[in-house]
User: Fold these one by one.
Assistant:
Number 1:
Amino acid sequence: MSQAIVLQVNKSVLEKMNNHYSPFKKEQAPPYTLFAAKKGTVTITAYKSGKVLFQGPSAEKEAGNWQASSSTPTAHSTDLKKKTTLPPNFSNWSVIGSDEVGNGSYFGPVTVCAAFVPREKIHPLKKLGVKDSKLLTDSQIRLLAPKIEALIDLRLLTVTPSKYNQIQPKYNVNHMKAVLHNQAIYLLLQQIAPTQPEGILIDQFTPEKNYRRYIKTEVHPVTDNLYFTTKGEHYHIAVAAASIICRAAFLDSLEALSLEAEFPLPSGAGSKSDAIAAKILKKGGLELLGKYAKLHFANTEKAHKLNR
Ligand code: MN
């Protein structure tokens, strides 16, 4: 896998690097760079600002030689694309963020939300406590969701298990998600018009190329100004807000379905889910189970086995 590591070093270290890599220097250095070198499989690009980029299969090892003298606390090993997709200062832009929840849970719906956070709402959202939903408890999420809804424009789509079971045999899961993200974003763009976001950040679940292919045949494909990254909530608060809205809607829906089913439906896809599914199967077969669960999960087969 191609690695890219960025170190921030001071002037004296930069000078040492300049000497160290001089036998490996490329003849031409790109603009704003002090030098560019190729040592073995690693390309080293040093900027006058003290930023030094190591790229290639052994980038991590090469950068490791300088780690102690750099001011970067830990080397970030990421694939190159991730580092380069988002423009500098992106977290302060006016952005539509989109995310989904429920995809990994046997019981309950899939929820998708697109949320628009203009620049001036970034700070108020932070003050509310909006952050990575994985750092929040379920009850914090349920308290936050209505406050977010009161503050910004958003669109939420919920695919019930019954609907999911109809769609899933025809669409693969990523195709379904792409279509849902696109629809939520399109509806939100209509809602906020004539205002336009500076960018649209999708919490990445499939390569960009595939996303674009999946939405090609949609009636209203949104294709401009799209950015993709995993852990999107770390790059813009709009994704964090969307994620909280999705999670709250998922929890509400799971609770409503539990009341209807008269069984406590767990989130996730573990052995607890198998045991409850077995009981529902006994009561009403696949037809009943399909109202509450995503039937193509392996849990369905495990539940059948429990009843044998
Ligand atoms: Mn996500």
Number 2:
Amino acid sequence: MKPFLFIANWKSKKTLVAVREWLEIFTQKNESKDQIIIAPSFPHLDFVKNFSAANMLSFSLAAQDISSFPEGAFTGEVNGVQIKEFAEYVIIGHSERRNLLKETDDLLAKKVDQALRVGLIPIFCVQNENVSIPAGVRIVSYEPDAAIGTGNPDDAAHANIVAEKIKAKYPALTHVIYGGSVSAENVQEFSAQEHINGVLVGTKSISPEDFIGILKHA
Ligand code: PGA
């Protein structure tokens, strides 16, 4: 099988107790050796990292956001240097942040700069093939708005065409992944596509059983 990333985006959904339960169940039940990236909320990065080390789990960690500012007097911001202590990746440009928090292309480009400055790998989300992708990005997640959290995924063949177009426009990309209502039932349709190199999973990453189902059926 081609290299394929599985990203669990827990969004703003879990308490620390729920995070611990997820990790315990996942540790007992997961048998796959797939490349997995887990994106918890900021306050849980430290716990997940320590749990992972103590149990010799092989997944990587992503933050769900990064400050557009460096270290300094920016109350409430979490900067790249702080994130790098715990995570290798950072999700930037998710449509929930673009739509609900009004994050603009300019702001997102600054966030990418901050990530790259400290050696974090951006996972840059785009909603269609026309969204501009800042220089230095290597991993893009194609996530059409209508598919996120709705139970209505994009047609896999269409997602493949979009991924191909994005790669043609940005040849330096190593991965174009797909996000939006991925489940155990439909993941195989996406993993079978030539230009899709992973899935970013929201709703179906919240329960460890659902996420393991996705790993098993890809
Ligand atoms: P979803 O979320 O799996 O709930 O559609 C996907 C995403 O956050 O990109």
